């Protein structure tokens, strides 16, 4: 049965209206002369409202965002109307309104989506397809979202259909202020939340992406690494305490292989074999990305492996090195750094960057080779390492400077 549809916006004044006070924007759906109205949770000053066009007048960014939202809602109502028409279902203004508001069927929430995602990821962590650290980031995201909802909405959960630009903006502000997150940390949480939203879109729980038009900005990060002098100091450092000596060895092994803590922990003696050049190489799949990498074994790394060849964990379990917990290693590295006279917070990330900079790029290993050994899926990631090497830039330009030294320019 053919029906006639009209969708328009109008302003509703608050009970205690005074000039200058914003009015509520309402959507009116009319089907065959019968109306249904609903709040949009948006407001506008009376003098800035174009009643004929049903939108805000103005060219400011917030005006554009509001008008874009109103157009999107209107388009969704029309799309639902078309869908019901094609399905030959009875259409009323009220049923169309309820369908848009999601009052028909289960009302899925943020925690519904997060719990499904986290449960599946937890199972994949057990299979080694995700790192535990990745799982923990989504668990932290869940806690932050609950805290944000309780703080800003007085609720412990939230319907995914109600998530909009303002929700994201508020969550970002909450992370930066209440949780005291830095710019990049807050952006990472929102990026992870974006993954959850994309799942909701794929599952047809929502029809529009609240992240559309939302810009995530990350600030440049200073990336520490060991300079050639600092690396030499670490290599030649003599330590009498056995537990600190082990930690130094494990750190240096990552400096000369570029392997992460988890990759070294899972490294087996069977992962080391002869490469195309007849020398020993490490052949593994990176734990984090499952990317296959092949890393030639440098002499210092080989010496460290030989040192622990008779360790019970290596003999009985086939492990390459008897690593302790990452937390303990980082804790003891503080003492190692003091002994070496290095004023940097040492850890596996610095070790990996040292391999990607001081050990390889500064010794003219092509960036493409470095990228492959580090298991980077995009060479732009490796180029971030190259940007911090002023020393290499100086050495690269030395020959050019010498070439032009003999030339003179006279007027």
TrEMBL record:
This is Recombinase. Residues 221-405 form the Tyr recombinase domain. It comes from the Bacteria. GO terms for biological process: DNA integration; DNA recombination. The keyword Phosphoprotein does not apply. It comes from Pedobacter paludis. One of its GO terms (molecular function) is DNA binding. Keywords: DNA recombination, DNA-binding. Belongs to the 'phage' integrase family.
């Amino acid at each position: 049965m053919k029906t006639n549809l009209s969708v328009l916006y109008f302003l509703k004044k608050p009970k205690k209206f005074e000039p200058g006070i914003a009015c509520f924007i309402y959507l009116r759906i009319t089907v065959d002369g019968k109306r249904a109205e609903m709040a949009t949770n948006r407001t506008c000053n009376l003098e800035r409202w174009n009643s004929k066009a049903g939108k805000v007048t103005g060219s400011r960014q917030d005006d554009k965002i509001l008008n874009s939202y109103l157009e999107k809602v209107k388009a969704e109502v029309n799309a639902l109307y078309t869908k019901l028409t094609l399905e030959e279902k009875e259409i009323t203004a009220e049923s169309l309104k309820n369908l848009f508001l999601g009052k028909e069927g289960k009302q899925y929430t943020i925690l519904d989506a997060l719990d499904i995602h986290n449960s599946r990821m937890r199972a994949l962590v057990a299979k080694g397809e995700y790192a535990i650290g990745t799982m923990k980031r989504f668990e932290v995201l869940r806690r932050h979202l609950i805290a944000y909802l309780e703080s800003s909405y007085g609720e412990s959960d939230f319907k995914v259909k109600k998530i909009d630009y303002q929700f994201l903006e508020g969550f970002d502000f909450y992370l930066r202020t209440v949780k005291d997150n830095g710019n990049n940390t807050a952006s990472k949480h929102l990026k992870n939340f974006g993954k959850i939203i994309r799942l909701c879109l794929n599952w047809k729980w929502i029809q529009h992406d609240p992240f559309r038009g939302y810009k995530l900005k990350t600030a440049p990060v200073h990336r520490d690494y060991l300079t050639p002098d600092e690396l030499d100091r670490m290599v030649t450092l003599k330590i009498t305490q056995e537990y600190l000596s082990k930690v130094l060895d494990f750190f240096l092994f990552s400096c000369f292989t570029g392997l992460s803590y988890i990759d070294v922990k899972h490294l087996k003696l069977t992962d080391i074999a002869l490469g195309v050049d007849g020398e020993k190489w490490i052949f593994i799949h990176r734990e984090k990305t499952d990317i296959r990498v092949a890393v030639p074994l440098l002499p210092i790394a080989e010496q460290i492996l030989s040192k622990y060849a008779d360790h019970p964990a290596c003999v009985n379990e086939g492990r390459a090195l008897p690593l302790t917990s990452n937390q303990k290693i980082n804790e003891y590295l503080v003492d190692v750094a003091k002994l070496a006279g290095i004023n940097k917070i040492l850890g596996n990330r610095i070790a990996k960057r040292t391999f990607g900079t001081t050990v390889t790029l500064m010794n003219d290993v092509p960036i493409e080779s470095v990228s492959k050994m580090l298991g980077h899926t995009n060479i732009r990631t490796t180029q971030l390492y190259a940007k911090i090497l002023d020393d290499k830039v100086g050495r690269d330009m030395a020959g050019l400077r010498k070439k032009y030294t003999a030339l003179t320019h006279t007027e």
